[in-house]
Design goal:
Layout: E1 4-12, H1 19-32, E2 38-44, H2 51-61, E3 65-70, H3 76-85, E4 89-94, H4 105-114, E5 119-124, H5 132-149, E6 157-164, H6 165-173, H7 181-188, E7 192-197, H8 211-224, H9 228-253, H10 257-293, E8 301-305
């Protein structure tokens, strides 16, 4: 298959109203740059609205627009991975369909790639973010991630980025069903350049990232790049064991029955909480091992449009 100059990967989940807008704006940018060899890959992540229908319609009118459709909702990260796996560009740009990633940055990203950068990534400027809970949890996640993984990832890093074909080749080798692309690409340590941007307001619809999805993404990032949580649990377990031994020695020489019952009850409560919390953490690691061991498919493609 003949390589194209630029591939632009856009995952879509219930974005029927935004698809024509994002495609139009992206095409205007690449045409302005006189790039005739390009492809825009729209990945339908199991949408329940008319997203797939819109993708098919656009693909029929324009052979530079290509479409993939999942059998079900596999998630944003795997939709990005599928688009990258099926891309054919010398450089690949990934962005969201909700227009919060300003397409006008594409020109600057491509120019930076011509200067020799293999990764041009973007970082959100969240100073105007009104959701205090989101700001605090976001900062907390990045600090925990950096501490546990020892990977330097900027606060506010987004999935709006450009990568060259050498980075794409590495991503295509990945088989992790819980892939966290921001951490993965930062860990590659290719020559990188950072661009700050202010997210635009959503034109249509609302954010598809619920608290549960954000939490799962954060946990995938943390547990996918570090064994430190297991080491921390081991250390806490040793400390609790020593404290428990101390309590029982104390009970052997202390005669008060009331205090004995209280100490035993409190000790059992703390130990029970620690055991269940540890099992919860272990389950994340076991789940990853289970899927990798049985080599399950990360995603299943139902339909392709304009793709071999």
């Amino acid at each position: 298959m003949e390589k194209v100059k630029v591939s632009i990967v856009i995952p879509c989940f219930n974005e029927e109203s935004n698809i024509p807008l994002i495609v139009d704006r992206v095409e205007n940018i690449v045409k302005k740059m006189n790039i005739n060899s390009y492809e825009i890959i729209l990945v339908d992540d199991g949408s329940s609205d008319r997203t797939l229908e819109k993708i098919k319609t656009i693909c029929e009118k324009n052979k530079n627009i290509k479409g993939l459709s999942f059998t079900k909702n596999f998630g944003h990260q795997l939709a990005l991975k599928a688009g990258i796996d099926n891309s054919n560009g010398e450089i690949v740009i990934s962005m969201d369909a909700d227009l919060q990633h300003p397409p006008e940055l594409i020109e600057e990203m491509i120019k930076k790639s011509y200067e020799g950068y293999d990764i041009v990534y973007t970082v959100r400027d969240d100073r105007d973010e009104k959701n205090l809970f989101k700001k605090i949890t976001s900062k907390l996640f990045y600090r925990i991630f950096r501490y546990l993984s020892e990977i330097e990832m900027d606060e506010g890093s987004a999935d709006y980025r450009l990568i060259t074909d050498k980075v794409v080749r590495e991503i295509k080798k990945e088989k992790d069903p819980f892939i966290f692309l921001r951490g993965l690409i930062a860990n590659y340590e290719f020559k990188s350049f950072k661009i700050k941007y202010k997210p635009s307001k959503r034109v249509h619809g609302e954010s598809k990232y619920s608290f549960k999805k954000m939490l799962n993404l954060a946990l995938s990032g943390i547990f996918g790049f570090s064994l430190k949580p297991l080491k921390i649990l081991l250390l806490i377990g040793l400390i609790l064991s020593m404290v428990t031994i101390f309590f029982y020695l104390f009970l052997m020489i202390f005669d008060g029955m009331d205090i004995k019952i209280w100490l035993i009850g409190e000790t059992l409560s703390v130990l029970s909480f620690f055991v269940f919390f540890s099992l919860y953490i272990f389950s994340y690691y076991f789940e990853r091992v289970f899927f990798l061991l049985f080599n399950r498919k990360n995603y299943i493609i139902k339909e392709r449009k304009n793709l071999n």
